[in-house]
Design goal:
- The structure is a single chain.
- The chain has a single domain, classed as 3-Layer(bba) Sandwich (FAD/NAD(P)-binding domain).
- The protein contains five helices and nine strands, in the order βαββαβαβββββαα.
- The strands form three sheets. It has a four-stranded parallel β-sheet. A three-stranded antiparallel β-sheet has the order 6-7-8, with no helix packed on it. Strands 3-4 form a two-stranded antiparallel ribbon.
């Protein structure tokens, strides 16, 4: 039976680990991500400024994983990790593993020192944040036409 590696997180770190491990046929890899896509943060600024399309900023994780014989994608969320039993409890079942990689990415921290800044600021690291900033820029642009 192949060694089963589960990777939590389909961001840059999780995808890099998946791609590296996919080179070893004796390893079975499962990539788990709460979103069915990976948002290309490097393209997010192009999306914000309307210089690229939404489709150019996302990668389907199902399609990406389908390119590898020993990789499976699972669109799910983690309820808990039972490390002594080496089992992950997911929103749609449970998954045993031999090795676990946690690569959940990062979140922009907005410090709440000024309500005006805090309530009207948005990060560009997430697809939602990038789309929100794009909408604000478009709204401001149309107001000045």
């Amino acid at each position: 039976m192949p060694h089963h590696v589960v990777i939590l997180g389909g961001s840059y770190g999780g995808i890099a680990a998946m791609r590296r491990l996919s080179k070893y046929p004796e390893i079975q890899v499962t990539l788990i991500e709460q979103h069915p896509y990976h948002f290309l943060q490097t393209e997010g600024y192009e999306l914000i400024s309307s210089n690229t399309s939404f489709e150019e900023t996302i990668v389907s994780l199902l399609a990406l994983c389908a390119n590898y014989d020993n990789v499976t994608f699972r669109h799910s969320t983690v309820a808990s990790i039972e490390s002594p039993q080496k089992v992950i409890l997911l929103s749609d079942g449970e998954l045993p593993y031999d090795t676990l990689i946690i690569a959940l990415g990062s979140v922009t921290k907005l410090f709440k020192y000024d309500d005006n800044v805090y309530n009207y600021s948005s990060g560009a690291k997430s697809l939602r944040g990038a789309l929100r900033l794009n909408g604000i820029i478009l709204l401001c642009t149309f107001r000045h036409l």
